[in-house]
Amino acid sequence: MEIRPTTDQDLDVFVDTLHAAFGRFPDTPTEGRGVWWSALEMDRNLLAVTADGRPVGTAGAYSFELTLPGEIIAPAAGVTFVGVLPTHRRQGVLSAMMRRQLAELRARGEFLAVLLASEAPIYGRFGYGPATYTKRLTVQRHQAAFVPPRAPAATATGSVELLRSADCAEILEEVYDRYRRTLPGALSRPHRWWELRAGQPPIAATPRYVAVHRAPDGVPDGYASYALGEGGVLTVDETIAADDAVFTALARFVLGHDLTTKVVFKHFPPEHPLRWQLADYRAAEVGNDTDWLWVRLLDIPRALTARGWFTDGELVLGVADPFLGEHGRYLLTVRDGKADCVPTDRAPDLSLGVRDLGSVYLGGTAPSSLVRAGHIQAHDADAVRLADALFRAERTPHCLHWF
C-alpha cells in the first residue's frame, strides 16, 4: 500500500473514495458551487492506494485559524475527509494515513491540528482530545416568555432586519469573522468557503432567513440563521452575537416568530444564560450535549507559549504520545499572561497523554476533571488546583464551524 499526496487531477477519485467509505453518493455540484466538499485544498490531502493502484482511503486538511485564550489567532490544520473503504478496514490503513498526515503537518511547521470526530472512540488513539462542547436547546413557543431582569442588565439598543441568506453573504462573513476573533475555540471561515457556498447553512446555498442585528450606528453585530419546518418547528442554524445583549435580542426575535410551535437552537453555547432569562426555566430542554472540536498538539512548547494565560504559576508536565512513540517532560512557567515552556529533567507534577493536553488546551476541560476520571495522574494535589487555574480561559471555548 502507498500513501501519496493528491493533486487537482485526483479530485474526482478522492471524492468518490471518501463517499464510498461512508456508503454515500456525492451530490451533484452546480458550476462547482454549493457542495460541502467544493473548498477542498488538494495540496493538503492524502490518498491510500493498493499495489495495483486502487484507492482505498482518504485523509485531508483545511488551512484554518483557531482563536486561542487571550484572543490570540493561531494557524491550525483542520483534519477532515478521513475514511477507509469497508473492504480495507482494520488492516492498518487508517493508522498509516494518520501517521503520515501528522508528519506532513509538522514538516509544514504547524503546531496544532483540529478535527470533528464522526465517531468519538476513533481519534483519541491518534492524540486528539475533545476540547470544545456544544448542545441543542429546544424552547416551547407557548412557554417562551421572558422574565424582567432582577438586576441592571445590558440591553441591545439596535434593530433587527430580516434578510435572505442569498442576499447577505458579505454581512454574514463580516459578522462571523469579527465574532470568531474574540472567542476561544472558534475557527475561521476562509473567504473561499463563502464564495463557493461550501459547508452547512448559512454558508451553503440552502435557503435560509437571517435575522441581522444592527447596532445603533447601523453596523451589523449579530445574526441568527433559521428555517421554519414542518409542524411549526423553527430551527436556528447558528446565532452569532457580539455580546449577550445582542444574543438576547436575536433570541427574542426567533422566539416571537408566528406559526411556531417550538424553536430549536443548534450549537447552543455552553453556560449561556438564556434559560435563566425565561419566565419558565423548564421551557428550554437541553439535548445533544456533545463534544465538537478536538485538538492535537504537534509541538508542545510552541502550542503552550502561543496561547494567553490568566494566572501565574509553574508546572512540570510529563506528556506521553503513544501513537508517535514520544515522551517528554516540560517545565511550563507563566508570568504576566505569557508562558515559557522548555524540556526539563525535573519530576512531573502531572503525567498525562497528549490527547489529555489537547482537551485542556483551550480551557474547555478542567484538568481536575481528567484527574478524577483517571486519565491524568497528579503527583501533587496543589498541582491540580494550579493546573485548573492556569488552563482556564477568559470565556468558555465554543466552536460553531462545521468542516
TrEMBL record:
N-acetyltransferase domain: residues covered: 1-154
PROSITE patterns cross-referenced by the UniProt entry: GNAT (PS51186)
Q: Which GO terms describe its molecular function?
A: aminoglycoside N-acetyltransferase activity
Q: What is this protein called?
A: UPF0256 protein
Which keywords annotate this record?
Acyltransferase, Transferase
Catalytic residues identified in the record: Y123 (proton donor), F403 (proton acceptor)
The membrane spanning regions, by residue number, are none
Residues annotated as binding acetyl-CoA = V82, G83, V84, R90, Q91, G92, V93, L94, S95, S118, E119
* UniProt family annotation: Belongs to the acetyltransferase Eis family.
> How does the annotation summarize its subunit structure?
Homohexamer; trimer of dimers.
Q: Which InterPro entries match?
A: Acetyltransf_17 (IPR041380), Acetyltransferase_Eis (IPR051554), Acyl_CoA_acyltransferase (IPR016181), Eis_dom (IPR025559), GNAT_dom (IPR000182), NAcTrfase_Eis (IPR022902), SCP2_sterol-bd_dom_sf (IPR036527)
Entries under SUPFAM superfamilies matching the protein: Acyl-CoA N-acyltransferases (Nat), SCP-like
Annotated source species: Catellatospora coxensis
GO BP: any one term: aminoglycoside antibiotic catabolic process
